[in-house]
Amino acid sequence: MQERRKSRCLICLPLLFWALISAVPGHAGQDLTANWSHGDGKDEVATDDYFITYTLDLKQEVTEAMSLHEALRYSTSWREERDSQSLDPSLRFAVTNDLFLFELFGAASRQRNSESADQKRANWEASWTSAWQKRFWPTLRATYGEDWQEDDNSPKITDKETKNETVALEWDLELLKAYYNYSRSRFFDNAGDRQNENTNNFAKLEAAHTFWQNRLNLGFSHQYSETRDISTTNLVGTATSALVKQGLAQVLHGLDSTPLTTTSGELTSEAALHDGDLETASALVTNGIDTPPHTVAVKVDFKKIDRLYLYSLDDEAAAAAGFTFAFYTSDNGTDWQLQTTSLPFTYNSTEKRFEFVVPGTASQWLKLVVTSSPLATVEFSEIEAYQLVTGINEAELTSTSSSMITDVNVGARLTEALFMTYNLSFEDGEYGSGVDYDRFSQAGQLRWQAMTDLSASLAVNESKSRNGDADQSTTRSYSINMNSVPLETVDVNMGMSRSENYRGGDRQSVSHIVGLYTTAALYPDLDGSLDVNYSHKKDDETELTSKNYHTVLSLTARLVPGLTADLTTDYQHSLGDEGAESTGANLSLNWRSSEMLSINMSANKQWQGSESQSEGAALSLSLAPTATTQFSLSYNYAMTEERINRYAAFGSWSLGPHFTLQGTGSYAESQGMEEWRIQSQLVARFSVM
After folding, report:
1. Taking the model in full, what pTM does it have?
2. Distance of alpha carbon 493 from its chain centroid, rounded?
3. Same domain as 379, residue 297
4. Of 174, 284, 512, 681, which residue has the fewest beta carbons closer than 10 angstroms?
5. Do the domain assignments include residue 552?
């Protein structure tokens, strides 16, 4: 029954599509793109690729309130005894009036590949949104959609079905706003004999108002959310366990030179690493230069994790042996414990992923650090975490997470020059792992605008957090800042701060920072900045102290029209049980002589004490001799533990309004190893509106 329903959807949607095109007049657009490319590289087989895509786009206004939008995309490709085709029709129907907006969308896809089974996919979604503009009337929205995906294998390897439904309400009562959202997603993997159901409820109340001609601002919000997730896998034969995928609360990525401690800003959120898209590259890309090392951190909130899968964009079986990964865990995301400097893994060529076994790991954060990688460029697309669940006949994993947050905000203009703000936040909840948590934070600031060119501020912050039965962690900070503009060309900022960390009522550490930050326009074509700060930290547990002096001087000069130079020097001196002294310098030149020619040069060097630690240089040239041609050359040199030289060239020639010829080449060598690749392509584009 289900099979027949999917087939009818795949067949009837294109027929309905063409019937509507012939019956209703409208506007049409057509695009045709063709690409022929040749590629070759070291230890690679030369390839010739051909790719053609045709797109037809139609729009009709059936009535003033109803519209249709149809699209058809056909693509075909050939590559070294392999060819594929895909056909993707879609239809969108919309009804708009003074009461509501209704949209119905449907799409189907059929893909044929000479090396694998054919793929079929169909999906549809209906949405209804209120459009009335009545005072005190709520805004309502409801959606429902289904998605099917399967292949032609026997037995099937891919046979999936997803059903999504959402109901949302937004109610503006002027002084009070209310929000509610309910969503449920059901996933069925018929080939893998598993299913998942995820249900979420979210409610929020917020209020904000100003008094006495904006002299007093008050704000309040309270929200509650609950998520329930049920995953079930049927066990076949004598199997007593199965791997169940775990949701990731957050994924961070960055270059971190101190993997045992992570401070704010060192790692940033990377949604592309956990969006379910295995065909699009994320920001994680390695090329043999891993200083500072590439870092991927995943927040699992104390769930038990037994496997980590890191997906590469392409099959990297040949390059996998050149990778080394260190593995860290953390219960707060700041302080990390090294578990191993070389985490064993296997590379799965079929799934294009690195597979790590981390049996029974239960921490709030897990972190992979790429400590070495091959010279060839490797792109990554996704990271996943799995738990090994046992059972009889089926393996079921149920988790419920909840969160309740209350925020209070106060702002006051005490005088024309004195301002005060205060923020208070409470959060109480439970992770999906069953571990409860609570958080509390408050922050106050007093700001004084003494005169136009002089201002000062005093800030006090406190935050507390606790996970499960662990001791409560507390952080308090105090800071005072002063900013002045003594001259029109000079800006000076001075600040002092103190920070204290407590665990279970006992102070763990205390630190002080004093800084002076100055920027100035020294001459009409010369700007500079000087940052000087001193920090002192004491660890109460070990009674170790450290002092650090840090100075950064930057100069930017416009030497002649089109030529700009930037020089940055960095000096850091640490005193304590592990004292160190480091110096760095970076010089860059940018010359744009005309619209046709630009040259960029840079050089950098780092010293640790009196010994050279690393150095690098880069040179790039871009040339556009005519309106239809463009060329670029680049050279990069890097030296840390090993020397790496990289050369690259690119050229583009527009042969007319429809054809473009492009070519790229790259070469890299390091300590006797080398990597090279060339590619050329001819692109044709035709468009009719």
Report:
1. 0.81
2. 33
3. yes
4. 174
5. no
